[in-house]
Amino acid sequence: MLRLVRWLHPDVDIRVDPHQFRFAAEGRDQALSPILHLRRVGTRLRVCAVGDVALLPRTSEDVRIELLNPASLPLTPWTREDALTAFLRYGITVVLARQIFVWPVVSLRGLASVAGAFSGRENEVLAKACRLAGAHEVLVC
Q1: Is 17 exposed, middle or buried (0-12, 13-18, 19+ CB in 10 A)?
Q2: Long-range contacts of range 60-68, CB-CB < 8 Å, 24 or more positions apart?
Q3: According to the model, what pLDDT value does residue 57 have?
Q4: Is the bond preceding residue 57 a cis peptide, omega within 30 degrees?
Q5: Which of 24, 52, 67, 138 could form a disulfide with 33 if both were Cys (CB 3.0 to 4.6 A apart)?
Q6: What was the pLDDT predicted at 117?
Q7: Domains and CATH numbers, the chain
Q8: Strand 35-41 vs strand 44-50: parallel, antiparallel, or unpaired?
Q9: pLDDT by residue (tens digit) across 23-32?
């Protein structure tokens, strides 16, 4: 029974830094630049890439969002918080190497290093984004 609980709620450690988020879980480690690339497809927005990668070919419908830069805004109707949630969901699923039955216990570390990114609400915004990304519980360390 305990093994099932640990499988459903694995520990994920996220170390936050202005230049990269480091996701660690189950012996895996993944560093991602806090950047999200979105593309408008019809009336929907689609995540095209995560991290500091080049997108080819680019269209006028593509947008690069620097998640910790208050001046970097996504296409409507998304907010920076929506983009952050998509980014965290991607990082969590990559580091756990699965997409189903994942409700991790997330530990957020290093939030002081990104002070001002969300007008002093960094703890609240990142914890909420983790919950929306599927976290069962969020611990701000």
Answers
A1: middle
A2: 62/37, 62/38, 63/37, 63/38, 63/39, 64/35, 64/36, 64/37, 65/35, 65/36, 65/37, 65/38, 66/34, 66/35, 67/34, 67/35, 67/36, 67/117, 68/18, 68/34, 68/114, 68/117
A3: 57
A4: yes
A5: 52
A6: 94
A7: 2-31+70-140 (3.30.420)
A8: antiparallel
A9: 999 899 999 9
3-state secondary structure at position 85: helix
Tokens of 18: 């202005």
Beta-sheet pairing, 62-66 with 35-41: antiparallel
Q: What is the pLDDT of residue 98?
A: 75
- Do 34 and 73 touch, CB atoms closer than 8 A? no
Residues in the chain with pLDDT values less than 70: 1-8, 54-58, 60, 99-101
Q: How far, in Å, CA of 55 to CA of 37, rounded?
A: 8
Q: If we measure between CA atoms, which residue out of 63, 7, 21, 13 comes closest to residue 39?
A: 63
Q: What is the pLDDT of residue 53?
A: 73
Strands 11-16 and 105-109: parallel
Instruction: Please count the residues of the chain.
Output: 141
